[in-house]
Design a protein that fits this description.
GO terms for molecular function: acetoacetyl-CoA reductase activity. Pfam families: adh_short (PF00106). This protein is an alpha/beta fold. It contains nine helices and seven strands, in the order βαβαβαβαβααβαααβ. The protein has one domain: NAD(P)-binding Rossmann-like Domain (Rossmann fold, 3-Layer(aba) Sandwich). The structure holds NADP nicotinamide-adenine-dinucleotide phosphate.
């Protein structure tokens, strides 16, 4: 078990939904958290205030993860403020769901850039610092859709499946360097991303989940905490948290 009290984490898209739950969960264990956001500064400030009110340390840093210069600045601000980086949670993600025949080139590129190409940006800039840690952790938030596919989600499922392959390959490369690399694959979790779905689709999803409910963001957050704290011998894995929807 790793002592997390002196560790520093970046959570991309840490300002809302699953990312906000991950930020606050890690902070509760003493991790100093960089809450990255793209455009919604108020939500990021709220998460930082929540962490501080509970006695933790956090800062909010704006960066578009699909932009390599923004990401370099995110890592630089982290090191300038906290002096180290031990945990990188690649959580930022977007959807632009359309059947393939209606999908524009822009819909394709935006989703691939934010969900997949972003991890080239974050990891290439963060890796020198993670290698200095005695317990480096990279956690990529993939999705059940990367495993099963999803109607109207060719762009999103390609990105999320890509993250799983990337996780395994990088895990092999970093295994001897005390940096673990894992993917977490949530099923359908009650966040704004899922609330945007038509009611009928949501009801159908809930009916198809063996445990008969949507997941909660803090159920994903606790799995991230587990990988950080207890995951010394866990690398290259996909942790499926989906209520039994995909086994
Ligand atoms: P969400 O509520 O829509 O929050 C998305 C977060 O990502 C926000 O903090 C947003 O920041 C940030 N973000 C978006 N584009 C960004 C960019 N270009 N650069 C930096 N940050 C950016 O989403 P969520 O439901 O919590 O999903 C979080 C992750 O879990 C995503 O990777 C998603 O694919 C994955 N996931 C979700 C579900 C689900 O059921 N919800 C299921 C499986 C996987 P701003 O608000 O500032 O834009």
């Amino acid at each position: 078990m790793i002592e997390l009290a002196d560790k520093v984490a970046i959570v991309t898209g840490g300002s809302r939904g699953i990312g906000s739950a991950i930020s606050t969960e890690l902070a509760k264990s003493g991790v100093k958290v960089v809450v990255n956001y793209h455009s919604d500064v108020e939500s990021a400030k709220k998460v930082v205030a929540e962490v501080k009110a509970a006695g933790g340390e956090a800062i909010a840093v704006q960066a578009d993860v699909s932009n390599s210069e923004d990401v370099l600045s995110l890592i630089e601000q982290t090191i300038n403020h906290f002096g180290q980086l031990d945990i990188l949670v690649n959580n930022a993600g977007i959807t632009k769901d359309k059947t393939f025949r209606k999908l524009s080139q822009d819909d394709w590129h935006q989703v691939i850039n934010v969900n997949l190409n972003s991890v080239y940006n974050t990891i290439s800039s963060a890796l020198p610092h993670l290698l200095e840690s005695d317990a480096g952790r990279i956690i990529n938030i993939s999705s059940i859709i990367g495993q099963t596919g999803g109607f109207g989600q060719t762009n999103y499922s390609a990105a999320k499946a890509g993250l799983i392959g990337y996780t395994k390959s990088l895990a092999l490369e970093l295994a001897r360097k005390q940096v673990t690399v894992n993917a977490v694959c949530p099923g359908f979790i009650e966040t704004e991303m899922v609330q945007e779905m038509p009611d009928k689709v949501r009801e159908q999803i809930i009916a198809s989940v063996p445990v008969q409910r949507l997941g909660q963001a803090n159920e994903i957050a606790r799995s991230v905490l587990f990988l950080c704290r207890d995951g010394e011998y866990i690398t290259g894995q996909q942790l499926n948290i989906n209520g039994g929807l995909y086994m």
